[in-house]
User: Fold this.
Amino acid sequence: MGKTGTAIAPKVQILNEMGLPMRMTNTPHAAGNRFSQELNSWQPQLQSADSEWLGDRDTVVARVQDISRNDGWAAGALRTKLVNILGAKLNLQSRPDYRALGPDHAWSSDWARDVEGKFRTFAEDPDYRCDIRRMQSLSGMIAVAFLEYMQTGDGIIVAHYLSNSNGYKTTFQTIDPDRLSNPNNAMDSDAIRGGVERTKVGRPVAYNFRNGHPADSFSSRNPYSWERVKSHTKHGRRKVIHYFNHQRSGQTRGKSLFTPILEKLKMSNRLSKTQIQAALLNCVLAAFVESPVDSGLMADIFGEQSGDEGLGAYQQGRSEFHENRAITLNGLKVPQLFPGEKFSFSQANHPGANFAEFEKSVLRNIASGTGLSYEQ
Assistant:
């Protein structure tokens, strides 16, 4: 109680999720201000690497594959990245560290030439024995895996050992990343996520592949059955090569390179089509003839005739008039109009005067997201 006998209200503090007093105005970091006009509606949630991606993965990948098929800029970005990284073919340049291994430099050079020759025999075999399907060279298989990595975020190759092979016994198989999923489409858990079985520390121990693509209606194998493949053989040799770009700790599956730019890429594609359609419409509609006569005036002009009959008589008169007016002057036709007609040209304006600058801005964003220069 104060001297005058009035009660003093206790101070009220608002606490945050940590139990600490919440700052209502200024914060040490402007980016952390929850009440500023610019940021108060921007409240994203903290999520783990897998929880933020695995739920959206199928939708995003399907959209990326669609834009890669139908948009020239996306298809060009894929081809350019492939040429820049892989080139015409895959070459081995063996450089053994003879200082660490013991022998001299001459041994190192001889060993390198021998290994490079054997690699060329294996990788460029005309019978494609490096491919379990006997359809591609090693360079072709790497190219397919890289394009799938660009679109889906994952590049997957499984190594096989064929005991009855008449050449090198090791062969490889590219696997569509869409086939990597939890058996029976089970929910993700700590033990298995996105089809990858993990230990408690997160080390992959096995991969579960559908026997057919989930959308392949022509497959002879049941797409609702899965095959479990261990990541390594019992001798410790790697069996599943799963490559993706690690962006966060604990990440299990890769994220498509097009993910941050997909929305702008789709908007650019849609706007480009709209601009082309508008420009084409302007080119097709060159000129037209206007007539001020309406159906009401028809009755006054043709007396008892009215409606469609009067309009039909008027149109027939116009047709006969133009058929008999083929007047030329020095080889050039002199146009004549029926009484009341007016000749007008359509405006050949090019729509979207700022479209070119807008497209450049979008392409710079796409180039930055894919790791290419704007010129590429």
Notes: The CA atoms of residues 367 and 374 lie 5 Å apart. The two ends are 77 Å apart (CA to CA).
